[in-house]
Amino acid sequence: MKTESTANIYRLKNLGLPPLATIEDIANATRLSPEYIKYLAFRTNFLYKTFTIPKRSGGNRKIANPSRALKGIQGWILRNILDKLSSSEFSMGFEKGTSILDNALPHTGSTFILTIDLEDFFPSITGEKIFGVFNSIGYSRSISHILANLCLFEGRLPQGAPTSPKLANLVCSRLDSRINGYTGPKGIVYTRYADDITLSSQSLNKLYKAYNFIPFILQDEGFSLNPNKTIFSGTRKKKSVTSLIISGDTVGIGREKYREIRSKFHKEFTGITTNKEHLHGWISFINSVDRKSSIKLKNYIACLIEKYPDSEASKNFLKITEKNKTQ
């Protein structure tokens, strides 16, 4: 007769997850000593460097950067456990193969859009919920406790650890299910990109009702909305979803952003600024989310190269073009 622990090990193996039953199993899998695993798991509060960065909306965001050793074992947990688990279908951020474009596309064709920001997203997720993620997939209470501790800072999910984004999505699976359970039957489209929630509908009244009801779900799940970053948009206001502009059935970066980016390239080619890596990043970004604007930008760059052939930017882009031809 199988014991509960044996059954859990079979379950973990069937899920393709490492069958960790003891701290020695974790040590063997990570090639660290059991004593060092204990040190990392129970001294995490002393293994982070914290700093703040300014938020766009004002105030500061606390970033907790784990030590090299702690980040290493967090990377192992991410690759071998968390990345093998599925988040909800409504979660578009921090998932392989998804982007801000995937978050915006479901809302095309909608007349009205509501965007909601979750306040203090990562710190709102408690150690108890992280323990629940590991315990629910089959790890024992003691192993779940160790794995959770390795991913926490001061009992909360730290913004800065490699495991935090995926864990946040897994914790939010129930939140996603509950919100869609309310919005779906009403014909409201729901997606979430990290702490950005987007709802869209043909009826503004339905979105107002959803806005009044959803805070109760958020509160029950341990979250709260930021009222200063709640935006209703529709026929008279530009519809923006995670920085992309929705116009009818199309999604793109929008005219204002395109002009801003084009100006950056002009300054680079005329020698006003020098940041070629930054420009290549913009090319890559636009190509991934807005093919039409990407073609326009490439044509504009070709014109700049022709107009300023001796500029450092022209020489750099021509080198890359020649390199790509030979590959």
Automatic annotation (TrEMBL):
The keyword Phosphoprotein does not apply. Residues 34-274 form the Reverse transcriptase domain. It comes from Advenella mandrilli. It catalyses: DNA(n) + a 2'-deoxyribonucleoside 5'-triphosphate = DNA(n+1) + diphosphate. It comes from the Bacteria. Belongs to the bacterial reverse transcriptase family. This is RNA-directed DNA polymerase. Transmembrane segments: none annotated. GO terms for molecular function: RNA-directed DNA polymerase activity. InterPro entries: DNA/RNA_pol_sf, GrpII_Intron_Splice-Mob/Def, Rev_trsase/Diguanyl_cyclase, Reverse_transcriptase_msDNA, RT_dom.
